[in-house]
Amino acid sequence: MAHELDWDERGEICRSSLQFLHFLCGSWVGQGHSRGEPVQARFRARLCFEETFLQCEETLRCADGQLSHEDLAMTRYDPDGEVVRVTHFMARGWV
User: Fold this and answer.
1) What is the distance between the alpha carbons of residues 27 and 17, in angstroms, rounded to a whole number?
2) Which of 29, 65, 67, 70 has the most neighbouring CB atoms within 10 Å?
3) Would you say 39 and 62 are in contact if contact means Cβ atoms under 8 Å apart?
4) What is the pLDDT of residues 17-27, one digit of tens each?
């Protein structure tokens, strides 16, 4: 970028650059398989922090209701690097 962005410019660039992911926003529940076992799955995606981040959460539960897997992804546009960045967090401290 040729000049340093002010607070409002940065926000507008970040919001508009994530528009292509807005179709993910919502909440879904369904069944499937994970590691060969049947699971109940929940996926939720929402815009947050003045619509400058997309937060996606996934939770999988076994047939008996016990937690099988959960993760979280935070997606943002980096106007300095001009790239979309995703930070993915997973149970047991994985990033």
Assistant:
1) 22
2) 70
3) yes
4) 999 999 999 99
| Residues whose CB falls within 8 Å of the CB of residue 32, separated by 6 or more in sequence, listed in order | 38, 39, 41
Torsion over CA: 14, 20, 26, 32 (sign):
negative
Q: What is the DSSP secondary-structure string of 2-25?
A: -S---HHHHHHHHHHHTGGGGGG-
User: pLDDT tens across 60-77, in order?
Assistant: 999 999 999 999 999 999
Distance CA(67)–CA(77), nearest Å, equals 31
Structure tokens that stand for 93 in this block? 């401290």
- Which positions ≥6 away from 36 have C-beta within 8 Å? none
Rounded alpha-carbon distances, angstroms, from residue 53 to 15, 32, 48, 49, 94: 8, 28, 5, 6, 20
